[in-house]
Design a protein that fits this description.
By secondary structure, the chain is an alpha/beta fold. It has helices spanning 39-51, 99-115, and strands spanning 2-15, 18-23, 26-32, 55-56, 62-64, 72-77, 120-122, 129-144. Strand 6 (72-77), helix 2 and strand 7 form a beta-alpha-beta unit. Helix 1 (39-51) packs across helix 2 (99-115).
Length: 145
């Protein structure tokens, strides 16, 4: 699985003008299940996300995790993280998991992150979503598990 984590002061996701998920201080997480991924990949990614020290401590150093700062997460499915841009100008997405498998692993990741002690809200899988966020730092980290 792949994820892009953005440290945010706030984020929200809308579908057809309706807000379906939001978070305050914490992480905006774009997640993609890849061909061959399993629940173990989702759980490993969730554990790494919960423990990643990218929030500042009292000395201004990135030394705290989302759990340490009692932050929350907005998790949005993003199959385009599987983009293959090695040939031509049109990306290919054949490395992404098939839709139903992608949905299952995306939802498993969100549940696993919740089990790690992080409050989680989500977008709507396979929907046309509009995501708004205020990137804090900016801090943007790419993870793979």
């Amino acid at each position: 699985m792949r994820a892009v984590l953005q440290r945010v002061t706030s984020a929200k996701v809308e579908v057809a003008g309706e807000q379906v998920g939001q978070c305050g201080r914490g992480l905006m997480i774009l997640v993609c299940a890849m061909q061959g991924d399993s629940e173990a990949n989702a759980e490993k990614l969730a554990a790494r996300t919960a423990r990643l020290r990218i929030f500042e401590d009292e000395a201004g150093k990135m030394n705290r995790s989302i759990r340490d700062v009692e932050g929350s997460a907005l998790v949005v499915s993003q199959f385009t993280l599987a983009a293959d841009t090695s040939r031509g100008n049109r990306p290919g997405f054949s490395a992404a998991a098939p839709p139903e498998e992608g949905r299952r692993l995306y939802e498993h990741f969100a549940r696993a992150l919740t089990a790690e002690g992080v409050p989680v809200e989500t977008g709507r899988f396979a929907a046309d979503m509009q995501v708004s966020l205020t990137n804090d730092g900016p801090i943007t980290i790419w993870l793979e598990a």
